[in-house]
Prior knowledge:
By secondary structure, the chain is mostly helical. 67% of the residues lie in helices and 0% in strands.
Amino acid sequence: MHAMWKPQKFKSIYLLASVYVLTLTLPSAAAVYWAFGDMLLDHSNAFSLLPRSPFRDMAVILMLIHQFITFGFACTPLYLVWEKAIGIHECRSLCKRALARLPVVIPIWFLAIVFPFFGPINSTVGSLLVSFTVYIIPALAHIFTFKSPAARQNAVEQPPKLVGRWAGAYTINVFVVVWVVVVGFGFGGWASMVNFVHQIDTFGFFTKCYQCPSPTSVHPPQLNATAPSPLRH
């Protein structure tokens, strides 16, 4: 969002975002997958697998705050288009603009409650579409834009010597395209589709606790002292 207003700071902001992902997002995700493994294949809500504790509750609260902030950022383009459509995009009153945004917010919240199984859908769409829009298309666009010597000579910014100038930049772009096509689109798309098919029976509208473990699986029934012991085979 900040880079859109000041494009000259895009590199530093993108670097900070990469550091955020590498130091926070990936380690926490790897830790949860390491702890629960294949249980996450049919439990998209990882918080439902964590034992009850103040740390779990704190994590849920922080995730809710994160979701509210992300929701605001993601809906900003819709807000701007809607405000311009109803003619209040130049209004200085924050209260009026907040009320005007309710017709955008309420339907989205309603759909999120109706369809709680957005995780598998998002995973499939991400592997099949985001791989192209975020990695493949930009890398190919850079290759074809600067394929002629004149375009490379007139480029506003030359690739740094550290990466090998233009030859290094082309090598990195080709590697990104091949890697994402094979791993992201190929293996990622296949795994997401298989997981989506396996979970389709768990989908439902207005699910109170989507894919939460059943009480019997969390707390196995206790046998009393007078009950006969189960037979062993």
